Amino acid sequence: MARNLAGADYVITGIGGLVGIGSSGHTLLAICRRAANGAWHTPISIETSGNSSKLAMQFSDTNRIQLIIGSSNKDTTVGITSSDNWVLAAATRASGSSVPRGHKFVYDTNTWTHTDAGAASGGDSTDLTGGRVQIGRWQTTDFFNGDILLVGAFKRALTDSELESLPFTLLGAAAAAPDGLWLLDQHATTQAIIDLTGNGANQTSLTNTSVATNSAPLWSYGLGASVVVGRSGGGTTHSADAAVTATATTTAAAAVDRAATAAASTTATVTAAATVDRQAVASTTATAATAAGAAVDRTAAASLAVTATLAATADVLSPSDATGALTATATATATAAVDRAAQAVMTAVASLTATAAVATPGTDPVRATSTAAVTAAVDSTSAVTADRTSTSAVTARATSSGGVV
């Protein structure tokens, strides 16, 4: 995406950090597509507070890249026409009296041209404080006709090899340390164009322009890998390798959309997954433990102990025809049903003592029957490990202080 400038279209920004660029060495460049030939077109002009251009790169009416320094036009002899389609065009000049140099990279053919101008030129020391930068116009004329993606200005002359590292990414252009850098990729013209160097040469006004329907081929922002790590309940985004560790009931997933490493480690009843759609490493470990008749889906422990004790005694206080008979039964049931982390402990003790005593001899036998039933249940909403212990003990004892039948 780029910005289309046709007719009287242009952008004005502040001067930012470009004061003094005319008297130093300098580089002006633009990634652009010329839509017409045979007229003066201006990608960038750096001007005083009185709107007088002191440094500019133009495409001439003879279809050449020219560097304008003050009132001096220097033809670099590098040709540029609409048939080139998208190009990176640049003009450089070292400090002092030196020969300007023209540069052109043609995206369609992947070819470079670097050519000197025919004569040397000095700089222009006019004070640019309070001045401006125009993208798409020189003073009040020579409007650019075509599409512009990127414009840059440097207070030094870039070498040929430095320029050859710039056509493909925004990060490449930023890494060359420009003193002014403007990207015209906004989705709407209501979005202001800013100076990406942070030096403050931001848009101050806009006349016309539109969002272009053409895009520069082979060009990208040059951003690094991004990694998305997701899990139950949400996810976050990191620019790094991804690692996920999950314990208890958890679903862990690492989704990597660029070269990265994803790992998932889980304990207890766990589903772990690593999904990678680019070069990556995924590993999963799952361990489940369930003990003693408990239904478990989270790591926990549950224990249940039930003890039933029965004691029966028949005592006869005097000689008699009495009989003491005792029956004792103990039943214990323990259940632990758990679905969340918790610890449940229950102890149930049942004790039954039955005694038959006969005070008068000769009566019918006396019988005592006892039944003890104990049911203990533990219900928890947290996962457990259940231990169940049930003990039933019955003791029957008959003693007599007289005769016993």
Short description:
With 405 residues, the chain is mainly β.
How would you describe this protein?
The structure is a single chain. The chain is mostly beta strands and 405 residues long. It folds into three domains: 3-211, Jelly Rolls, CATH 2.60.120; 227-285, no CATH class; 301-400, no CATH class. It is built from two helices and 27 strands. The protein has helices at 160-163, 170-175; strands spanning 3-5, 10-14, 26-34, 41-47, 53-59, 64-69, 72-79, 86-93, 101-106, 111-116, 132-135, 146-154, 180-183, 203-207, 210-211, 227-231, 234-238, 242-247, 251-256, 262-267, 271-276, 282-285, 301-316, 324-337, 343-358, 366-379, 386-400. The strands form six sheets. Strands 1, 3, 8, 9, 10, 12, 13 and 15 form an eight-stranded antiparallel sheet that branches. It has a seven-stranded antiparallel sheet with strand order 7-6-5-4-11-2-14, with no helix packed on it. Strands 17-16-19-21 form a four-stranded mixed sheet, with no helix packed on it.
What tags apply to this protein structure?
7-stranded antiparallel beta sheet, 2 helices, mainly beta, 405 residues, 27 strands, 3 domains, Jelly Rolls, disordered C terminus
Write the layout of secondary structure elements.
Blueprint lengths: L2 E3 L4 E5 L11 E9 L6 E7 L5 E7 L4 E6 L2 E8 L6 E8 L7 E6 L4 E6 L15 E4 L10 E9 L5 H4 L6 H6 L4 E4 L19 E5 L2 E2 L15 E5 L2 E5 L3 E6 L3 E6 L5 E6 L3 E6 L5 E4 L15 E16 L7 E14 L5 E16 L7 E14 L6 E15 L5
Parallel strand pairs: 18-20, 19-21, 20-22, 23-25, 23-27, 24-26
Antiparallel strand pairs: 1-12, 1-15, 2-11, 2-14, 3-8, 3-12, 4-5, 4-11, 5-6, 6-7, 8-9, 9-10, 12-13, 16-17, 16-19
